[in-house]
């Protein structure tokens, strides 16, 4: 009988993360239930007492009063308030709405009421959200590149002070004499600290503005900044909703800039934190590694066919070192250590892989940014991750393949 394959690292990490998220959600639900449930019950009791007293004093039957309150709730959902508010669907209001749509904030204080508006929102949000996510990823790539440039400059300055780097050293492709800078990448933990400091500073400045203009207390302003910048968007607090403000134009511009920069910064910080969480999961998986795995590996090795040759078997034993004459020169070059002849299929596949890697190196060198190529043929095009995860893997030290 064919034995079940052992759980690989990717699946193990996925299952462990799913279990941790489930436990995290349960713990959060327990804490919030303990904190908010008594307040909710007390508010409901006060509201029932208020309804009873109002119905008794003004001689209004409870069904009529509840019907009136339902009409008020419908009006509130449509954006109608007792106090004067700014128009929801003028151009500034509509622009604010589409900004919350494409950034996935979704406050909910403004929603389309017509069928045509709801249908248009579906199409508009499909392309708008995709484009905004792409913008966030490009912002992440550039902010990481900027931080890497600054941190590398500081690292070179530190090496010069310690005497490990010549004073006449200039950045360039010829760094073979300086082994300490070859393959250097910024630490993911340093990047996380810098982004965290910048996010906290930005939130504090934005909170000061909201406290002064909106009249909220500082804690509510910080709460609004986190809910908005993280694109949670509950909608219990929404900025720039009054009919008029002092220096209204300047406040709207500042509000837009703070929200844009805050969302981009928190998005980048979340992705860096996700890399740290992934490293913690890898550490936990190593600690939880079962002791019977060596026996399983030995048994699977014994069960495998000794003479079976799979495409790319030579390349799977070690990473490919790209060479200009990467083709096999003779039949002896195509033999395995055990003396068995390699198949022509593997020979063809190896040559194609070597040629593709060589072409990629030449293209990158011609464009001015050569990179060390280390490719494992077991990996497909998505092996390094996609989107923000791939950016972090390529640019930070703790997630590089060479570690």
Automatic annotation (TrEMBL):
Keywords: Cell membrane, Ion channel, Ion transport, Membrane, Metal-binding, Potassium, Potassium channel, Potassium transport, Transmembrane, Transmembrane helix, Transport, Voltage-gated channel. It is a multi-pass membrane protein. Residues 86-143, 200-278 form the Potassium channel domain. It comes from the Eukaryota. InterPro entries: 2pore_dom_K_chnl (IPR003280), 2pore_dom_K_chnl_THIK (IPR005410), K_chnl_dom (IPR013099). One of its GO terms (molecular function) is potassium ion leak channel activity. It catalyses: K(+)(in) = K(+)(out). It is found in: Cell membrane. GO terms for cellular component: monoatomic ion channel complex; plasma membrane. It holds the Pfam family Ion_trans_2. GO terms for biological process: stabilization of membrane potential. The chain crosses the membrane at residues 94-112, 119-140, 188-210, 222-244, 256-277. Coiled coil: none annotated. Belongs to the two pore domain potassium channel (TC 1.A.1.8) family. This is KCNKC protein. The lineage of its organism: Eukaryota, Metazoa, Chordata, Craniata, Vertebrata. The gene is Kcnk12.
